[in-house]
Write a structure and sequence with these properties.
9 strands; seven-stranded antiparallel beta sheet; alpha+beta; single chain; 294 residues; two-stranded antiparallel ribbon
Length: 294
């Protein structure tokens, strides 16, 4: 029983709903058939161009395919935001000294870890909502994106995303290793979240006056985990005291990029939910009319 309680707490902290990957989700049924339906998005379009030899992804010894992939997908380096909490796929590679970088534009999100085996990519799809991929960080003649139909959905198709494949941004109380302190809880962040509940486990650069946030904060003593303990994490413009910024494409994790990311993620999730529910409703109507011979 103790282990079950621990798993439940872990899932709540990381935004996962444990039964999500095992339930009979509506998006797995016709006409959506999420796992088997073909995807059509910027990633599949890029893969087709790679297969035809129309474009190449250049390999960098320092960052792998990252710079070339950003260029191919039109993702600006200035969108970079950095998260150091161990709350994603390659969490063994993430920590305060080695944050995970996220880059995004209107159509795609890219997750990058220093020394990571893969890059994590998710794309907006006009029929499926959000589709997840990995790209192996290995030099190849024709790199290939692998669609992820199971692993990602354990967190990214849960109550935290509206029950549809989507994205989530969490704010946690991280310890010095980047692990969330489960007993202190966490917040799911969207455009309505108060600033004082945002960015726990994230680095934040930029000036914001007297407003307080949870960014740039490692909780040393969970008995003193009040926001007032994070005075030194406010209005940070230089991340060099925290980690080696030269290992990343830019030295920033800009507060404006974070605000845009959180707003866009919630927008994409709501659009996905509306899309899939509309497709299901129209399908049910057609099925009912056919059965009634109307």
């Amino acid at each position: 029983m103790r282990h079950l309680r621990w798993l439940a707490a872990l899932a709540a902290s990381w935004g996962c709903w444990l039964p999500a990957w095992g339930q009979n989700a509506d998006f797995e049924r016709e006409p959506i058939s999420y796992r088997t339906a073909p995807a059509d998005n910027v990633v599949t379009a890029l893969q087709s161009r790679l297969d035809r030899g129309e474009v190449r992804l250049k390999w960098s010894e320092e960052h792998g395919y990252l710079p070339s992939l950003l260029e191919a997908l039109g993702v600006p380096k200035s969108s970079q935001v950095l998260v150091f909490s161990k709350t994603s796929l390659q969490r063994e590679r993430i920590g305060p000294k080695t944050p995970r970088a996220i880059y995004f534009n209107d159509d795609v999100y890219i997750g990058y870890c220093l020394g990571g085996e893969v890059m994590e990519v998710s794309a907006v799809d006009p029929q499926l909502g959000t589709v997840f991929y990995t790209l192996d960080q290995v030099p190849e003649e024709k790199p290939r994106f692998f669609r992820q139909r199971d692993n990602c959905l354990s967190c990214h198709a849960s109550s935290a995303t509206g029950g549809v494949p989507g994205h989530l941004v969490r704010s946690v109380f991280p310890d010095r290793r980047g692990l969330p302190i489960l007993s202190l809880g966490s917040y799911r962040t969207d455009h309505t979240s108060p600033l004082e509940e945002r960015w726990g486990g994230w680095y934040v650069t930029g000036r914001h006056g007297r407003l307080m946030h949870m960014g740039n904060w490692i909780v040393e003593n969970k008995q003193e985990a009040e926001l007032s303990a994070n005075q030194k994490g406010q209005n940070i413009t230089d991340l060099r005291p925290f980690f080696t910024v030269g290992r990343y494409l830019t030295p920033h994790s800009d507060i404006v990029a974070l605000l845009v990311l959180e707003h866009q993620v919630e927008c994409h999730n709501r659009l996905t939910k509306a899309l899939l529910e509309t497709r299901l409703a129209l399908h049910y109507e057609q099925t009912l009319n056919r059965e009634l011979e109307e």
